[in-house]
Design a protein that fits this description.
Shape: globular
Number of strands: 4
Number of domains: 1
CATH class: Alpha Beta
CATH topology: YaeB-like fold
Structural class: alpha+beta
Order of helices and strands: HHHEEEEH
Radius of gyration: 12 Å
Amino acid sequence: MISKRGLLELGTEHPETLNTLEDFYTISHKATWHGLMDVRKTFADADQVGNVLIFNILGNKYRLICTVTYTRQTMFVKALLTHTEYDRTGWMKWA
């Protein structure tokens, strides 16, 4: 389960991502993931650091940071970052 509203709110800061985020929501909302290997069946380039899933958006132009609890099938959107913002590692506070 993922919040569509929260996801799209992040997209308003980067309007070019909105269509991709809509697609991401549709796919991830229907998915049942029990670990990173399941996530990678859907999103091959996803990475996990602790409880944080990292997705490449728009050909790796942006990084979508989400916390995940597989046992509850919940994912919370934390940030949509440019590469420069991602490299600053502030997102690791959620890991």
